[in-house]
Write a structure and sequence with these properties.
By secondary structure, this protein is of the alpha/beta class. 42% of the residues lie in helices and 14% in strands. The protein has a 4-stranded parallel sheet, with helices on both faces. Helix 1 crosses helix 7 and helix 6 crosses helix 8. The protein is globular and about 55 Å long. The structure holds NADP nicotinamide-adenine-dinucleotide phosphate. NADP nicotinamide-adenine-dinucleotide phosphate (NAP) binds next to helix 1, helix 4 and strand 2.
């Protein structure tokens, strides 16, 4: 989902992009990474094991991609002096805070996916000290399944929908994030960890209501509920708001601009 928008944004601004799907490069293969990036000026790694619930019972498989794979990409980039952006997640934090997490807050993931992504961050920074690690959250976009697209589908299927109102985060459009990732590389921003999320914060209930409103549907069809009524295999952080530098617009603005392409799909 994110990778497709990164490719589109880079090509639209005139960059020469090689887009590699898993069939062309499995990042678990170090030798293949070494070959793939031999001529690269910069690499943006959007590949990951992203099935959060499945990672609970397949942590070793998720680790192989999110930690070892990320390390392989970083080692290959360092060997070829290529810039690197590694995409990470809000799930490296435990969500027990009540104010936004600064980039230097201690990592304390609640679930297996978060542990593997945190390991990836450490591995990337150790293998490639010049790398950018960009934590993002609550992504939606034109090229993949997402909460926003699910809400649009459910609106066609049901009169009302219950949505949890006790998890806080920053809904972020993949296109807006892609622009930030491009700019970090092009500007030669300082190495280290960045937070790449929308400004403002919302609950899933807020996001569902705003999606309905923008789609011309009655937001009162969205009802609030609590996450204990919808247990999932992987625990979710309750307060997942990242302190950022405000470079990305407010989440409502991103959603407004994104909705036509998200509704239309790939
Ligand atoms: N979605 C979110 O809300 C969210 C939130 C926070 C952070 N992130 C992070 O943002 C990044 C992009 O996420 P996304 O939502 O765009 O995920 P996505 O749509 O699931 O894309 C991940 C891609 O990685 C590929 N992949 C998996 N294993 C691979 C391997 N061993 N080698 C090469 N490619 C492999 C997948 O290929 P297949 O489709 O063939 O499996 C898929 O194309 C990830 O780092 C993710 O952890 C996402």
């Amino acid at each position: 989902m994110l990778g497709r928008d990164v490719v589109d944004v880079l090509r639209a601004s005139g960059h020469d992009v090689v887009a590699l799907a898993r069939a062309e490069l499995d990042i678990r293969d170090l030798a293949a990474c070494m070959d793939a990036f031999a001529e690269s000026d910069a690499v943006i790694n959007t590949a990951a094991w992203t099935d959060v619930d499945a990672a609970e019972r397949n942590e070793a498989d998720a680790y192989a991609v999110n930690a070892v794979g990320a390390a392989n990409v970083a080692r290959a980039c360092a060997a070829h002096s290529a810039a690197l952006v590694q995409v990470s997640t809000d799930y490296v934090f435990d969500g027990r805070a009540s104010t936004p997490y600064p980039v230097g807050a201690p990592l304390a993931p609640l679930n297996a996916y978060g542990r593997t992504k945190a390991a990836g961050e450490w591995a990337v920074r150790s293998e490639h000290p010049g790398a950018h690690v960009v934590r993002t959250a609550w992504l939606y976009g034109a090229h993949g399944g997402s909460f926003v697209r699910t809400m649009l589908r459910l609106a066609q299927e049901r009169d009302s929908v219950e949505v949890v109102d006790d998890q806080h985060g920053q809904p972020t459009w993949t296109h807006d994030l892609a622009v930030l990732l491009r700019d970090l590389v092009v500007e030669g921003a300082p190495a280290g960890v960045h937070h790449g999320t929308s400004s403002g914060e919302a609950t899933w209930y807020d996001l569902a209501r705003e999606t309905y409103r923008l789609a011309g549907l009655d937001p009162e069809r969205v009802r609030p509920t609590t996450s204990d009524r919808y247990p999932r295999p992987a625990p979710r952080p309750q307060y997942s708001v990242l302190a950022n530098d405000g470079r990305l617009p407010d989440w409502r603005d991103g959603l407004r601009r994104a909705l036509p392409s998200v509704a239309e799909g790939p």
